[in-house]
Specification:
- By secondary structure, this protein is of the alpha/beta class.
- It has 2 domains: 13-254, 3-Layer(aba) Sandwich (Rossmann fold), CATH 3.40.50; 256-433, MOFRL domain (glycerate kinase, domain 1, 3-Layer(aba) Sandwich), CATH 3.40.1480.
- Helices cover 37% and strands 16% of the residues.
- The protein has 16 helices and 12 strands.
- The strands form 2 sheets. A 6-stranded parallel sheet has the order 3-2-1-4-5-6, with helices on both faces. It has a 6-stranded mixed sheet with strand order 7-8-12-9-10-11, with helices on both faces.
- It is globular.
- The termini are close together.
- Mean pLDDT is 93; it is low at 325-336.
């Protein structure tokens, strides 16, 4: 039994492949008119390729999909645009403007097929009138640094965007089918890519309160827009029950839970019992690492609540909070060398807590292939991670304190590097207790 291979194979088993799942959700009858396909997110291009592979050659189909730089694929009938993520840029702004213009041309006999996945919020970056792309970039950077939950970040984004928070669907006269791959806890369409086709239950007041909560130094244009909305001078985003959604379907076709079940099935096929701990685990990554370490100690010492061997599988989205002196730009790296995402920070915290306990192996990776701002999906931690680090003169505690988890695992050659996976069902974590 090779623990590293088990961990990596389970990660690949957990990857949700859009090419396998999209086709079964395509409409059984084509519209009388044309189909406009639009999409945004890290999985959007693979989803669009699946549509092209199964769409009738004679049926009218064209459109635009937005994805992160380096995540594109050559498509025959759909235009692919690469743009900035997690901070929006001018490329995303122009492509979103083009999408909105095409959507507004559709009539009652046409169909809008919208492909939505994680990452779409920053890619669909057409600001509302009065707000510039620079303003949107600044607010996004500050919210990412401060440790705000993704639902909070998306609440603010909805009120600064011309298409998020259901506004894309509201601009369309044709029926709308949104196929969605979820990367957020709870799998609510309103939070996935900030719900371009979904009803939005939030308010301008909530968005403004989030900026106040995290003491975000927002540009004047942003504050003026939100305050005008609070005062009733601007229309709210379309709400649940609004008539604009009568002919709109938001269908979630893949979730983190699906990925965890696939991984659990893989471990069972290898004769290893599993415990699925949930797909909605949140909180500071280093604190979650401590909690999981305590659970492992209980298993090792008392055989409770499970006996070893066991694979502890979980998903969700933890956070890493940086203070302003630790961050220096749109990639979220620290001025003092901070490098690493939430998965490597979780693993480093876990490894420190283990400190040499035998027969414990762990993997934590983002299913989109990118953990934070670096080139890795995540990493692997082993029972001897700290021993090997000390032999190399690497101080684990110091690196964790400076949010430099990437460097720790880079030095040990324990990073997991996959390149773009073109899917995204949030994080995948597994701790193997042998």
């Amino acid at each position: 039994m090779n623990p590293r291979k088990l961990l990596l194979d389970s990660f690949h088993a957990a990857a949700v492949d859009p090419l396998r799942i999209v086709a079964q959700h395509l409409p059984p009858r084509l519209p009388k008119g044309r189909t406009l396909l639009v999409g945004a997110g890290k999985a959007a291009v693979a989803m669009a390729l699946a549509v092209e592979n199964h769409w009738q050659e004679s049926a009218l189909l064209n459109g635009i999909v937005l994805t992160r730089y380096g995540h594109g694929l050559p498509l025959k009938r759909i235009t692919v645009v690469e743009a900035g993520h997690p901070v929006p840029d001018a490329s995303g702004e122009q492509a979103t403007r083009d999408i909105l213009r095409e959507v507004e041309k559709l009539g009652a006999d046409d169909l809008l097929l919208c492909l939505v996945s994680g990452g779409g919020s920053s890619l669909l970056s057409l600001p509302v009138p009065g707000v510039a792309i620079d303003d949107l970039q600044h607010v996004t950077q500050e919210l990412l640094r401060c440790g705000a939950a993704i639902q909070e970040i998306n609440t603010v984004r909805k009120y600064l965007s011309a298409v998020l928070g259901g506004r894309l669907a509201a601009s369309c006269r044709a029926p709308v089918l949104a196929l969605i791959i979820s990367d957020v806890t709870g799998d609510d369409p309103t939070h996935i890519a900030s719900g371009p086709c979904a009803p939005d239950p939030t308010t301008y007041t909530e968005a403004l309160d989030i900026l106040k909560k995290y003491r975000i130094d927002a540009p004047a244009a942003v504050l003026e827009t939100l305050q005008a909305g609070v005062q009733g001078k601007l229309n709210e985003t379309p709400k649940p029950g609004d008539s604009v959604f009568y002919n709109v379907e938001n269908r979630v076709i893949a979730t983190s839970h699906h990925a965890l079940l696939a991984a659990a099935e893989y471990f069972r096929s290898q004769g290893i019992p599993t415990a699925v701990l949930g797909d909605s685990i949140t909180g500071e990554a280093r604190e979650v690492g401590k909690v999981f370490a305590a659970l492992v100690r209980e298993i090792r010492q008392y055989g409770q609540p499970w006996k070893s061997p066991v694979a502890l599988i979980s998903g969700g989205e933890t956070t890493v909070t940086l203070c302003k002196t630790e961050s220096n730009g749109d990639d979220g790296r620290g001025e003092q060398g901070s490098r690493g995402g939430r998965n490597t920070e979780f693993l480093l915290s876990l490894a420190i807590e283990f400190d040499g306990a035998p027969d414990i192996y762990a993997l934590a990776c983002d299913t989109d292939g990118i953990d934070g701002s670096e080139n890795n999906a995540g990493a692997i931690a082993t029972s001897d991670s700290l021993r090997r680090a000390r032999q190399m003169g690497v101080n684990a505690e110091s690196l964790l304190a400076s949010h430099n988890s990437y460097t720790f695992f880079e030095q040990l050659d324990d990073l997991v590097i996959t390149g773009p996976t073109r899917t995204n069902v949030n994080d995948y974590r597994v701790i193997l207790v042998l």
